[in-house]
Structures are given as structure tokens and as C-alpha cells.
Amino acid sequence: MSRARYKGAVAGSGTFSGAGFAVKLVLIALVDALGVFGVLAAWRAGSWGILAATVALLAAANWVYFTKRSLPLKYILPGLAFLLVYQVYVVGYTGYVAFTNYGDGHNSTKEQAVDALLVQNERRVEGSPALPLTVVESGDGELGFAVVEDGAAEVGTAEEPLEAAPDATLDGGAVTQVPGWTVLDRATVLQRQDEVTTLRVPVSDDAADGSVRTQDARTGYVFQPVLEYDEAADTMTDTATGVVYTPNDEGQFESADGEVLPVGWRVTVGFENFATAFGDDRYAGPFVKILLWTVAFAVLSVVTTFALGMFLAMVFNDPRLRGRKVYRTLMILPYAMPGFLAALLWSGMLNKSFGVINQVLLGGAAIPWLTDPWLAKLSVLGVNLWLGFPYMFLICTGALQSLPGDVYEAARIDGAGKWRTWRSITMPLLLVATAPLLISSFAFNFNNFTLIKMLTGGGPRFDDASVPLGHTDILISMVYNVSGLDGSAPRDYGLASALSIVIFVIVGVISAIAFRQTRKLEELS
Amino acid sequence: MRRSILLASALATTLALTACGSGEPSGGSTADADASAKPSASGSLTVWVDETREAAVQAAAEAYEAESGVDVEIVQKNFEDIRADFLAQVPTGEGPDVTVGAHDWLGEFTANGVVAPIELGDKAGDFIPVSVEAFTQDGQVYGLPYAIENIALIRNTELAPEAPQTYDDMIAAGKKAGTKFPFLIQSDGDKGDPYTYYPFQTSFGAPVFEQNDDGSYRPELALGGENGEAFATWLGEQGEAGNLSTDISYDIAVEAFAKGQSPFVIGGPWMLEKFQDLDLAVDPIPAPGDQPAQPFVGVQGFYVSAQSKNALLANDFLVNYLSTTEAQTALFEAGGRPPALVEAADKASQDPLVAGFREVGATAVPMPSIPEMGSVWSFWGVTEASIISGKADDPVKAWDKMVSDIEGAIG
Amino acid sequence: MTTATERATGPATGRPGEQVLRHRMTPRRWARELGWRHVVGVLAVLYAVFPIVYVVSASLSPTGTLTGSNELFAQVSGVNYAALGDTRFWTWMGNTLVIGVATAVGTVLMGAAAAYAFSRFRFAGRRLGLTALLIIQMFPQMLAFVAIFLLLISLGEVVPALGLNSKLALICVYLGGALGVNTFLMYGFFNTVPRELDEAAKIDGATHAQVYWTIILRLVTPILAVVALLSFISTFGEFIIARVVLQSESNWTLAVGLYGWVSSLLEANWGLFAAGAVLSAIPVLALFLFLQKYIVGGLTAGSVKG
What we know:
The complex is a heterotrimer.
Chain A: H1 3-12, H2 16-45, H3 48-66, H4 71-97, H5 110-120, E1 122-124, E2 131-138, E3 143-149, E4 152-157, E5 163-164, E6 169-171, E7 174-177, E8 181-183, H6 186-191, H7 193-198, E9 201-202, E10 211-214, E11 219-225, E12 227-230, E13 235-238, E14 244-247, E15 253-255, H8 272-279, H9 281-315, H10 324-332, H11 339-349, H12 356-361, H13 373-401, H14 405-413, H15 418-446, H16 449-455, H17 475-482, H18 493-524
Antiparallel strand pairs in A: 1-11, 2-3, 2-8, 2-11, 3-4, 4-5, 6-7, 9-10, 10-11, 12-13, 13-14, 14-15
Helix pairs in contact in A: 2-3, 3-4, 4-18, 8-18, 9-13, 9-15, 11-16, 13-15, 15-18, 17-18
Chain B: H1 2-21, H2 31-37, E1 44-49, H3 51-68, E2 71-76, H4 79-89, E3 98-102, H5 106-111, E4 115-116, H6 129-134, E5 136-137, E6 140-141, E7 143-149, E8 152-156, H7 167-177, E9 184-185, H8 194-203, E10 209-211, E11 217-221, H9 225-241, H10 250-258, E12 264-267, E13 280-283, E14 296-305, H11 311-322, H12 325-335, H13 342-348, H14 352-362, E15 365-366, H15 373-388, H16 395-410
Parallel strand pairs in B: 1-2, 1-3, 9-12, 14-15
Antiparallel strand pairs in B: 3-14, 4-14, 5-6, 7-14, 8-12, 8-13, 10-11
Helix pairs in contact in B: 3-12, 9-16, 12-13, 15-16
Chain C: H1 2-13, H2 27-60, H3 79-84, H4 89-120, H5 126-136, H6 141-158, H7 167-175, H8 181-192, H9 195-203, H10 208-219, H11 221-237, H12 240-245, H13 254-263, H14 270-304
Helix pairs in contact in C: 1-14, 2-14, 4-7, 4-8, 4-11, 8-11, 8-14, 9-10, 11-14, 13-14
């Protein structure tokens, strides 16, 4: 870049400073306007958390862009805002879930659990008829049902049990008019459907006779509740047996002799999930194997992809070579394919009896690529190599071209051979240059769930373990399995979150240590 | 195509509208608030369906829209995703009013309180009994059944003119036909496929769970013991003989049968679409054991969300519109699964292949819907696969280990 | 602009011992120095391309099962491609392009700004901040969907456009990862731009914003292209979060849609899937071809002084 040209740029934008300020003002005004809109909307919706977050972000934005003291933040804030909302919050929330029993059977709030229990335990009175039903409204706005039983009309509300209404008009078996009541049309009924579906009209003064309810506002049935909820005492009572259930610490209703009702709700359980994670004997054996394999898989994936990528990069780094562009383009193809798709494809190609590898390339061999423990590991690494080498190839190609030429010259003068030059100059320089990317590649592979899931599903299974885990399972796929996310056990998001926090800590610590090491390397070179 | 674009935009608009509407806090919403949120339309209904059922449900939805003035939004999902998404979304107040689903999800759905019971009333009698039973738990019906599906033996009549009576007959006929495979049964690598293999297992008298008198299951394993071990031994022998192979995936089985590489394939009506050029017959599955080979019956149906704000519409739509002969027939034509409504099933049975599946289904047993079933599948399949592939040296030992592992997992 | 390309290709031709001798090489010498490279190249290309040939073959087979189609190009027909027209494929393609491009642009803008700050300003917690950026991205995404789902529900109650089933919301979620590995890549490249340039500009009275917009950004165009490509590719293949966020079929991305075609075994249609996969690789490939010269040059300088 010539100074002359840069001067031209500055001179060309002589009024830049003023214009730039105006642009900044407009942008901030825009952000503020959107922010204020967000604040108002949050106010209306009653979302206090979002309201507070929006206000905080707005204040931060205005402070950062109108003060002189926060220069770096001016550049970092936009990305940081997204990072905070969509990543840090997400990690934090997962951390919170790790301390709850969120999962199957504890899926919702207590209110919903109570509703569900009541709804599930309301039984139609055996042998009771289907009653053609009409929704009606009394003069003071109270909803009621007009039903036809044995050809005679009856009307009632939640407060007043059904009573005969001899002067009602019937048409097609249903009530169309009742004096003293307004028959609601379909649209009104739909608007008030919450009220209609929750309305219970007692059949008689005796509660034991049950009450009429409807689900479609066309037909009513007589129901009797099996469970009753006492809001004041916060207890459930079985009307048939008289057993009383009270809420326990686990988020379930429990009777005195320890029997629990099926639907529970979400409560915080402290460190219980972490205790479970490390306390189940059945997982103790497989865990060690899986941890070792996970580390081996992640490290080997990085090493193999980097080695092949670097080798190819060096091979094609000769400017005399014709067709380099073509080679490079073709070799990038695996990278253009979504990972899950490639893994699925390979799992078909590696099928023992029908896969193209055995059938066509190896002339009908029956090599159990995905079903033998060691071959499966090899296959996983091979497929990951296929997926990952183009990326490393790209990076190394770039890095190689910019290695300082004078070092090579010096090496040549010292009489160093090709191998020595590579080992003591090229390789260390490349490593330093690509270290952060290698570390993040390690972290990515440590959690490369998609590949394992799509290629082997973790198989082949451990023969000696009593849990559905296999030789190619990595920690994250074990979490998927242990916490039932694969459907093989009741789903337990709390446990899954706790385990993913643990994994995050493992990966984070390893990476942080690796970073320190590379920084030392960097300082040395 | 053009219609689908229109539909898509309509969908987007209504979604945006419901998104606005659902902003109201559910607890404190009064009738007035609801009325102001939806000024003109008298309500809207969201229905989750998968790809094969979309068109058919759409037809029923249009009929319903025309008659009631209610908007019905059809949201297409992967069938696989529906179960987990429904469980995850309903408690948050999101999620659909109605979703399509399989009956064996029921245990999990009720344990999480995400489904509401529906009252079929007298209509219950119009359905094939097993279909309503499958959606019944503790005396309550939780789903509107629309299809019954089960596997049977599909036979290429050109290669095998006679229906085999026993398993050995079938193998003999298959060998006589001189095709590449004597018969085809799908598996899934080392994960196995216990669903498709189940009829063989029942023929040895080893059902998966104990059944109560009313047909419901209780969480006590029944697949162990002598009968189960006999089945395991048989699996090992057949695997060694090369009649069973874990490498034959669904795709491979279908393609091989379509190419005439075997006279028999064990499979369901969903395969037939690929066999349109062949002359077929559907027969009962020949039993290798001394009891009848009963496959699992799966019932497909519609569930109503426990958190639906349109429960009235949802029930009305299901009970009064999706249970009609037309709707059930349309669903049959879209998905090829025999209808659950007797009248529609009779109509569909004019096709001898459908009648064949229905006949086999009549002797079949519903797949367990108790939540414990989830812990069974994976151990079950892997053990079967390892016995067939010869990886497990001793089938009986492998089977016994499986039984104790499942017991450990159920807890 | 010219400077950038010059810098990218410059060192390559300047390598010692690589004077061009192409015209006067003996066959033996050719084999020793270049011939083997072609052998390696052909082998590598075979390894890279074979599975792709296989997909192309499956996409052209009218019977359409994947493991059952070992005879490559036994039957060639365009039915699968034609059948894509009856599906939402092209809608998904459009969605994916919109989301991919928007994410790529956003990532480049925000990542470059952050990289500039890290590269040019010295402030407390700079090193820690850089490391933290990388480490926070290592959180296993597989489970994040629960939290993302709940977050979007609450946001959607306030601003529907940021809630579930909105492409904008998905873009925002992706932009949450804008600072991360990519920032690192750019940071390294920014460091290679001589500081004397900005200092000289500052002496001439330019503000930091002027330096950034009119000088630095022009010099680092290659790395911007690279990061755009990397971001585009990762958005293109992402389906775990996308299928949680985008609920209605008309909003799906290609990855979600294609995954749907094969995820349920019974309805599997490999032919259609393969055709879709082949077509979906084209945008990525086209972008790569277009950016190739930047990529080689771009990663070059960036990684060296990272």
C-alpha cells in the first residue's frame, strides 16, 4: 500500500469526520428506537427479564458510543451483545437446568401438573348416555348447559344443578331455545371455549351423581372426578379411597404410604443430578473407556486431518505443478457437504454386505467396517479425516505460502536436508500459526455428536456393559443416551444439562491449558 | 405448487397472528381479552402432521373450515420429531392443538400430562376395537385412531404361487425359487429390528411384557425364560444358516424384493408403493415356533394437547370430522395404512392386499404403550443382532444378559 | 485491492529454489520433482471425490435406494431432480441462501470489528477476552436447544419476529456465534497489517473509525471473504438448532428438509435426498470457486502471526 494512495483516501473523505458522526447518530437513533419499542413491548407483555435486559443493553450502547473512554468496546459491543443473549445466556440457563429435575414426569409447572392430573382422573359415569347439548347464557351472563335427556330438556349452570325446562324448543334432538336463557351461537361459544370446556353442571344436588361437561359443545356426558384438588391445603384427594396426596420435594404428589401420582412438575434439586451422573455403577466401567476413546478420537482427528492437510498442502505448494486449481477445487468437495449427510452416506458405503466399499472396491469382501470394535473406530476416524482434511488443507496452504523465505535460505546454506528443514522449520512454524484453529478443532471433535450418531450410532455395543453404550460412543453421545434423549430411557434434561456442564469444563480446561502452551511456543519462536 | 405458496403465505400470516395472540398470559386471560385478541375469526386450530398425512388432513381441514369458519393450520413435521417436540413444547404453551401420533407414545404423554382425554361417546363403537383399546389408558381414551398397521408376509406370486404354512416351508419355497435370498426381513445393522422380528418371537411364546386380562400391559418382562431362550437359539441357528442377516436394511430388503431377488419379504403396507410392478399376495407370517406368529399392531391417531387453548375446536374437529368415513378413507389413500374406522376399513378391504394385512392384524397384539417400553427396544435389538451375526457365541447367555440388563434399566 | 492480491501470491513465487525450470526438465527429473505430486494429487482427489460420485450416481438412479445402488450409473434418469420441483426444495434453498448470506455478512461485520479492537487496542482483559471467546463456543451445542427454545418463546412473546419459527430469530442465534474462531482468524490477519499505516494516518488526523473503514478493511478483504465462506458453510450444514427454531415447513432450511427426508426410515427416499444433496452442494462450491484466490491468500497471512 503506497502512502500516496492512502493519503488520497483520507483527502477524498475530507468531510468524513462530520459525515461519520452523522451516520453514527442515525444508527444509534435507530438502535434506540428499536430498543424503546422492545422495552414497550416487553412492558405490555409483562416480560420483566427481557425489559431489564433491553434497558441494560440500550444503556450500554449509548454509553459506549458517546463516551471517549471505551474505544475497544465500540468495536466489540455489537458482536458481544449477540454473544451475551444467544450464547452466554444459553449456557447460563443450561447451568440452571442442571440443578432442576426437568425431564419426563417433571415436564411442566405445578399448575399444569395439577390440571393434567384432574383432567386425566375425571371419569365418565359408566353407562351414562350421550346428551345432546347446547351452551346457553343466563340474563346475568352466567354460562349454562341445556341438555336433552330421554327427549326432555334440562338446563343448569355450575351453581344450579340441571332442572327440567319443559318450555324449551327442541330441534333435531337438541335445544334451540329456552325461555329466560340466550342460546349462544357457535362463534360466541368458540370465543368463550375456555369457560365452556371447564364448565361442570351438576346433575343433581348430590355431588356423587356427577356433573355434565362437554368437549365439543355439541354433546355432553356425565363425569365424576376421581381426584379432587384442595387449593388451600395444596393436597389431592382420591374421592374413591379417601387417600390424601401432598406435594413432596421431588415435585410430585405423594400419599402417606409413599405412593406418588404420575404427573409431576419441575423443582430445583440441588446437586442431585451431579450425584446421579457419577453415582450409577452401571456406567462406571463404560465411562472410563468412553472418556479415553473421546480424547483419543478428538486428538487423532485433529492429528490425522492436520497431517493429511499439511502433506497435501506441501505437495501442491509447487508453483510449477500444472492443474493446481483443479486439484484444490476437487479436494474441497467433501467440505461442501453438510456433515450429517456425509456421515449417513458413509454408513451406507461401509455396510458389511452391501456397501460399495466391500462390494465394489474390495471385490466382495465381508469386512465388518462398522460392527467390529477396532474397525469401527478406524472407520469413524477415516470418515472424519475425509470430512476434515480439506479445511486443514486450506489453512496449511495459506500458512505455507507466507512462511518467511529467508529462513529456508539459511537452512539451505547450513546444509540441512529436506526432512530436517521440514522438521525444524516448516512444522513448528505451521503449528504456531494454526494452533488456535487446531485447539478449536479439537473441541469441536470432542463434541462431534452428529458424526457418531449418523455413522455408527455409538456401536458396536460393549458386550460386557449393562447399558446401551458402544465402542465408538463419545462423551456427548453417552450423555444423549444416559439422559434418555434418544428415547431409551425417560428423558432427563436436568441430568443431561449437568453432564454437559461437566463436559464443557473438561474441554474448556484442556483448551485453556493448550492455549497457554501455544502462547509459550509463540514467544519462543 | 402455486397453491402451496399461497398456503405457505397464509400459514405465515396466521402464525404471526397466533404469535401475537399467544402473548397473552394464559392464566389471567379473560373472555374479553380473548375476544379482543381475535376480533374476527372465531378461532384457529394448529395441527401437526407428517408428510404422508398432510394432504389427507388438509382435505378434512378444508371441510371443517368451510363448515365452521375456523382456520386450520397444518404444520408439517418429521414423524420422528413429533414425539419429542410435543413433549417439549406443550408445557411451554407452544405446540399444536392437535397432533398426529402413534399409540405407543401414550404412556409417556400421560406421564407428562401433555395430552387431554377425548370422549368418543357412541362413536367408539364405529372403530375396530383394538384401535380404541390401544389409545385407552386406565379407562380413558386419549386419541382418535385413524389407522392400524402391522406387518405380514408379502409374497411375489410369480416366484412362489403357494402361501407357505410354516417357516420351514417358506425357506424351502424360497430356495426352490432359486432367487438370491430365500426370504427377506429387514434389520438395522448391529442395532437390530425387534419390531419386525417380533412375530417369530411370539411364535415361541415369549411376548415382551405380561398382559393383563383387558389386554393392557404391565411392566413385567415376559421375554425371558425357556421360551425366550428357545427363540434366541433359533435366531442363532438361522443367522448361521444365512437365512437371517443384520446387514439387510429396509432399503436393501425393499430393493431386492422389487428386483425379484426373493419371493418373500416381511413388511408392512408402506412397502407396497415400491412393488407396483409385481403380482403380490399378503399372507400370515409363517411361524417357526409352535404358536401363531403375532406381529405388533401399531395404531396411528390424533392426540389433543392438554394445553390447547382451542380444546373445543380440537375435539370437535377430531370427533366430528376426522372420524368420518371420507376422512378416514382419504387418510388411508394418502398413507396406505388400513383405516381404523370399520366402515372405511371395509371399503379399503376391497383391495385384497389391504384385506390380507387386515386379516393378519386381526390376530396381532398392540405394541405396548407403557413408558417402560422405551428402555426395552435398544437392548432387545442389539442382542438380537449380535446373536444373528454370530457375535454372541452363546445365544442363550446373551439373551439372559439382555433380560437382566433391561430389568436393570427399568429399575 | 491490488496490494492484497499481490501480497497473497507474492511470497509463493518468491520461494527460494523454485525458479521455474519447466521447459528444460528431463523426464526423470520431472517424475522426481513433479510427477509424484500428480500421483498424490490423483489419489487424494479419488479419496475426496469417490463418495460424491456415489451420491451423484444415486441421485440419477430412478429406483432410489442408497445402499442398493452399487452399480454406479447403471441407470441414468433425471426423475429425482424433476421430483424436487414437487417438494418445497426450492423454498428451502431460498431460505438457506437468505439465512446463510445474512449470517455470513453479520459475522463478517461484527467479527472484523471485534478483531480490529483486539488487534489494535491494548486494554485490560484483552488476552483473556480472546481466549474466553473461543472457549465459550465449546459449549456442547447439542443440549443448548432446550435453552434456545425457551429463550425464543419469551422473546417471541415480546417481539414475534424474534420468536420461534422466524428466520430472523435463527439468524440472531447464529450471530451469537459471530465472535469466536472466526474472530481469531481475522485477529491474526489484522496483526499482519503493519501498524505504521494506521499510525501514519492518525498523525494525519484520521480518527480510529476512518482508519478502520477506509484503510484496514480494504487491506483485509481476503480474510473477510474467507470468514464469510466459513460462516456460510457452517450455516448451510447446521440442522440441530434450525429444526428447533423453524417449525413450519415453508421456513425450513435445506439441512432440516433433507434431514427430514431420510430421518424416518419408512418414508426414506434416497434418490430424492441424493438429488437434493447434490444440488445443495452447488452454492457452496460456487462460492468457493468465486473466492478461491482470496482463500489461499486470506488464510495465508492470517494464521502466521496468530
